[in-house]
Task: structure prediction
Amino acid sequence: MTEQQSNGGDAPVEKPAVEAPVAEAPAHRGPPIVIAEEVLNEQGESTRVILKTTLGDLAVESGGRDDIPWARVEAKDLHNSAKACREGELGMDMLHLMLAVDWVDRIQMVYVLQSMGDSRKVILRVDLPAESPAVATVNDLWEAARWYEREAHDLFGVFFEGNDDLAPLLLYEEFEGHPGLKSYPLNDYETW
Result:
């Protein structure tokens, strides 16, 4: 499409139409994401050896970074694995953190365990199906798990077998859905 313009009364001069440039949305804003290499230091390597010995064949996959090794176990083996980490040579007497991650195709439970005596940490990971995620409770091993499990149940819908108190911790009783999930429609809310 062109635009007609006059050049001082003479014949019209055609001016090409300027098309607006199409801006592409950036895939990521900010600095580039650099994923750190999984390399254990000396303490992390010695802890990894103990973790591998402790879990044996229960560990499906493992890795680590700095001084914290991790192992992924099957959901059916979580309680036995956690108990072995607590009562075995590792002596993981504290549940430092427990969280859920929504990977869309699965929910991953992450357990950060710590030994207060020698300041070692290990991470246990468990992949659960996105539909009806369920795993055994560990609140008989660490009392702190009660709160973390209630939070994961509230926000992600994870059911913890053996936990008799999964009452809402952050939401109210009648709340429908699990707002921690990526599929939860955050824009569909009612104004009070």
The two ends are 50 Å apart (CA to CA). The first strand starts at residue 2 and ends at 5. Residues 42-55 form the longest helix (14 residues). The chain has three helices and nine strands.
